[in-house]
Design brief:
The chain is mainly α. Helix content is 74%, strand content 0%. The chain has a single domain, classed as Up-down Bundle (Ferritin). It is built from six helices and no strands. Helix 1 packs antiparallel against helix 2. The longest helix has 31 residues. Bound molecules: hydroxy diiron-OXO moiety (OFO). The site of hydroxy diiron-OXO moiety has 9 residues, from helix 1, helix 2, helix 3 and helix 4.
Length: 183
């Protein structure tokens, strides 16, 4: 069971996750246009992950007797100065998401909503990984600076990233991502 306050806050976070997906899809399109296929792949994988994060909120809210309500998704930026600019903006955005997940966690603790607290724990862990990945790529881009060879090497490395579907997602979501029929 969810309190109205918790339900509204979880819906707001679902919208933020969808905005995250939108932001990274915009970055992916920008990279494709600039011939940076590997960076484009990295951001498209990130898009898929964010949509899965949103779906996880969607399923949880509905499963707990609330109702997932879809809202307007803000328009993301479409122009970026460089790959370093994109990853700096990515890290800043993820720090904002970490802060909002922490606020949700505090709301769950204050409301003695242990189910939601346990549910949110997955996101707390996920944010540590996401910020870590961004920090790592930013450090590499700072070493590369304006070196095209270094940039192309990193582009090749980022081309290998693949979408992973957390095992606890419903079969329907997993099947949709993998393009196979749901069992
Ligand atoms: Fe980028 O993280 Fe969602 O939660």
């Amino acid at each position: 069971m969810l309190s109205k306050k918790m339900e509204d806050a979880l819906n707001e976070q679902m919208n933020r996750e969808m905005y995250s997906a939108y932001l990274y899809m915009s970055m992916s399109s920008f990279c494709t246009n600039k011939g940076l296929k590997g960076f484009a792949n990295w951001f498209m994988v990130q898009y898929h992950e964010e949509m899965l994060h949103a779906m996880k909120f969607y399923e949880y809210i509905n499963h707990q007797g609330g109702r997932a309500v879809l809202n307007t998704i803000q328009q993301p930026p479409s122009e970026f100065a460089s790959p370093l600019d994109m990853f700096t903006k990515t890290l800043e955005h993820e720090q904002f998401i970490t802060k909002s997940i922490n606020e949700l966690m505090e709301l769950a603790i204050a409301g003695k909503d242990h189910a939601t607290r346990i549910f949110l724990q997955w996101y707390v862990t996920e944010q540590v990984e996401e910020e870590g990945n961004d920090n790592e790529i930013i450090a590499q881009l700072q070493i590369i600076k304006d070196n095209p060879q270094g940039l192309m090497m990193l582009d090749r490395e980022l081309a290998s990233r693949m979408t992973t579907v957390p095992t606890e997602f419903s079969k329907g979501v997993e099947a949709a991502i993998k393009g196979t029929p749901a069992a």
